[in-house]
Design brief:
Arc Repressor Mutant, subunit A, 2 domains, 15 strands, 40% helix, elongated, disordered N terminus, transcription, DNA-binding transcription factor activity
Length: 262
């Protein structure tokens, strides 16, 4: 009986590591639902895997031990696509005729930009993302300001002193901001320090900050802090987001919008 229990536990932990490798983070609530076991069982599994240095425990879940290998934009764009499309559609309500709309680099912000087909009038765009700028231009938009700067992979963001100087001179009505991690205490974080600094200037330029982040980002903490949650107006996420962490995020200040699946 004990050998069978051990085998089942190892199978379950194998699934946890596969999920972690696939999406970059795992939550206790989602794993509990997916594997049909209690939150306590999942927490014990995470404790065991953490003890083997196979993952790093964070609030409400776990992330990989090594956070330096950030996936490239093209890889990330294929992950959580259904959730990101739902988030992008829900985010449309924060854009109004005549707005200057800013976008940080990232796949979820790219999805927001890609759904903005000309229906609004007199929109101007500001971004440090070549992918976002090209998509807006392909969709028929004309007033697009690209920050310039050092081209950084894997997120294809333009960063550094040149980008920062440009963004300090601009203003936006709304910023759609992506992040590698969204945590009630650590705030918004990213693995890259230069990108964190440039994103900070985008935040400074905006009247309203709308964070677009799928549920796999919630509870995750990366190397560099962008801003605390107290500086965020709205967070748009998907239906898989654990209710407990959503409550904790709301207590930090932002309005939380949960996008309905299409």
């Amino acid at each position: 009986m004990l050998d069978k229990q051990k085998m089942l536990a190892e199978q379950r932990r194998g699934v946890i590591l596969e999920e972690l490798g696939s999406i970059g983070s795992v939550s206790v609530a989602e794993l509990s639902r997916k594997l049909g076991v209690s939150d306590m069982t999942i927490r014990r599994d995470l404790e065991e895997l953490s003890g083997r240095n196979l993952l790093r425990k964070v609030h409400g879940g776990a992330i990989p031990v090594s956070r330096s290998a950030e996936p490239h934009f093209e890889q990330k764009r294929r992950l959580k696509r259904t959730e990101k499309v739902a988030i992008a559609r829900a985010a449309q309500g924060f854009v109004h005729d005549g707005d200057t709309v800013a976008f940080s680099a990232g796949t979820t912000t790219w999805h927001v930009a890609s759904t903005l087909y000309p229906g609004h009038r007199d929109l101007t765009f500001v971004t440090n993302s070549t992918n976002v700028a090209l998509t807006l231009q392909e969709n028929g938009w004309e007033e697009i300001v690209l920050s310039g700067g050092m081209f950084r992979t894997p997120s294809d963001a333009l960063v550094g002193p040149f980008a920062d100087r440009t963004l300090r001179t601009l203003n936006a009505d709304v910023l759609f901001l992506g992040a590698h991690g969204v945590h009630p205490d650590a705030g918004l974080t990213t693995p890259n320090t230069a990108e964190a600094e440039t994103n900070g200037y985008l935040v400074d330029a905006a009247k309203r900050v709308v964070v677009v982040a799928d549920s796999s980002k919630l509870g995750v903490v990366a190397l560099a802090r962008i801003i605390p949650l107290s500086r965020v107006d709205v967070i748009v996420t998907d239906q898989r987001a654990p209710k407990q962490i959503l409550r904790e995020i709301e207590l930090s200040g932002p309005q939380v919008v949960v996008a309905e699946s299409p």
